[in-house]
Write a structure and sequence with these properties.
- This protein is α+β, with helices and mostly antiparallel strands and about 270 residues long.
- The protein is built from seven helices and 16 strands.
- Strands 3-4-5-6-7-8-9 form a seven-stranded mixed beta sheet, with helices on both faces.
- The protein is globular, with a radius of gyration of 17 Å.
- The relative contact order is 0.15.
Length: about 270
């Protein structure tokens, strides 16, 4: 889809603002990550929420509210129901990979996306413990720590590559491809691996809309392809819809040919 230069420039500026917000939230989270007394509890779906998740969500909501007062916010902890029909909605996961975070594993991060009627047009992922900041804007490409990133297919004819996925994927699917399977414990990081060319294929079986929105934009702007496994349409978020209990299983790939391979050779058990 072609975009007017003014639209691209506006998305780039919005992405810069979101990246600054993500870095602030990341700094806050690092303080909790290094603490020996992190308060955590189970939510009704048995996922973990910590005091760090909530604190970061408050910070992000306040910062985005000041910078984009006319936009709606949909976030995992504070606003899991889309409550507005605004032109743009910010979709926030203040801490993706909470279990990793609580266990002291470094693969966790902040996910901030902006979505309009055509899907995510801004995507920011920040993994503070890894020092990786990903920024994408529709029509302007994707970057990691300021350098352009692109998807990458495995070298032919060796076909050595990586499939990044969630822990449920090998349990629920036969993965019949000659690639290494790696589980990082963060849906956002799975999609970041595809976008930067580390993984040829990415798959998550139960991500929420806030787990995948920023990564979706990142994969597309890095030249990859992404789809839901069940043909569901996560974007744009519908006003009044409760997203806390909704999952959107996704697969992403460096190329359409690799996506076809995933469709054919990653089969339900």
């Amino acid at each position: 889809m072609s975009r007017r230069p003014a639209d691209v420039a506006e998305a780039v500026e919005a992405a810069k603002t979101a990246a600054a917000v993500a870095e602030k939230a990341g700094a806050l989270l690092l303080g909790y990550f290094r603490s020996d007394s992190l308060a955590a509890e189970l939510k009704h779906d048995y996922s973990i929420v910590t005091e760090a998740d909530v604190a970061a969500d408050h910070l992000i909501a306040a910062e985005l509210g000041r910078s984009f007062p006319g936009d709606a916010i949909l976030s995992e902890e504070l606003a899991p129901t889309s409550g507005s029909s605004a032109r743009c909605t910010w979709i926030v996961d203040p801490l993706d990979g909470t279990t990793n975070f609580a266990l002291g594993v470094q693969h966790w991060g902040v996910s901030i996306a902006r979505c309009d009627a055509n899907g995510p047009d801004v995507g920011v992922l920040f993994f503070p413990a890894l020092g990786e900041l990903y920024v994408a804007a529709r029509g302007a490409g994707a970057r990691m720590n300021g350098a352009a990133i692109h998807v990458r297919a495995p070298a032919v004819p060796r076909q050595v590559g990586m499939i990044a996925c969630c822990a449920r994927t090998p349990r629920l699917f036969h993965v019949n491809l000659p690639m290494k399977v790696r589980v990082f414990g963060s849906a956002a990081y799975t999609l970041a691996c595809v976008a930067r060319g580390s993984a040829a294929i990415g798959m998550e079986t139960r991500p929420k809309i806030w787990d995948l929105a920023a990564g979706w934009c990142l994969v597309v702007e890095a030249g990859g392809v992404i789809e839901t496994l069940d043909s569901s349409r996560p974007f744009p978020p519908a006003a009044g819809r409760a997203y806390g209990d909704l999952s959107f299983p996704v697969r992403a790939a460096a190329t359409e040919a690799l996506l076809n391979l995933a469709r054919e050779h990653i089969e339900p058990r």
